[in-house]
Amino acid sequence: MIALGCDHGGYALMQEVKKHLDERKVAYKDCGTFSEEACDYPVYAKKVVKCILDGECENGILICGTGIGISITANRFKGIRAALCGDCFSAAACRQHNDANILAMGGRVTGPGLACRIVDAFLDTPFSEAERHKRRIAEIDEA
Predict the structure, then answer these.
(1) What is the torsional sign of CA 81, 121, 57, 66?
(2) Which H helix or E strand runs over 11?
């Protein structure tokens, strides 16, 4: 299951992502927000992080206006590797090389068609399990 979270700046794009996930029959937990009314992105980043760290969800998708603030918030938590992606190559690479567990996107900078392709690249790319990638992730976790 995937945890979803957004603020008001990411709300419209998240609606498109949810439709896409429904079409793919991918299960998700919607952690909000549930409207375009102004709200604070850290609230929703923390809800998604909690779902992942508690083992309720395997991965997450976070969207705010640029994707920057919401990814910074998520990355404050040990064990979370949130990657802000605006292209498919980065979305695949962050999974393959970094075992990213949260995809972050910007609702005001990424169109819905591209966003859905980015989601696909993130979801469809496994971690490579190469020793060098495992070593680097362990180094991150030591910080």
Answers:
(1) positive
(2) helix 11-24
Active site residue 116: no
Domains and CATH numbers, the chain: 2-142 (3.40.1400.10)
Answer yes or no: 97 catalytic. Answer: yes
Q: Helices 112-124 & 88-98, crossing angle to 10 degrees?
A: 20
b/e burial code for range 67-93 (CB count within 10 A of at least 16 → b): bebbbbbbbebeebbbbbbbebebbbb
Q: DSSP E strands: which ranges in the chain?
A: 2-6, 28-30, 59-64, 82-84, 102-106
Work out the mean pLDDT of the chain and round it to a whole number.
97
- From the candidates 39, 57, 64, 94, give the one annotated as an active-site residue: 64
Per-residue model confidence as pLDDT tens digits over 63-102: 999 999 999 999 999 999 999 999 999 999 999 999 999 9
Question: Residue type at 49?
Answer: V
pTM of the entire structure?
0.96
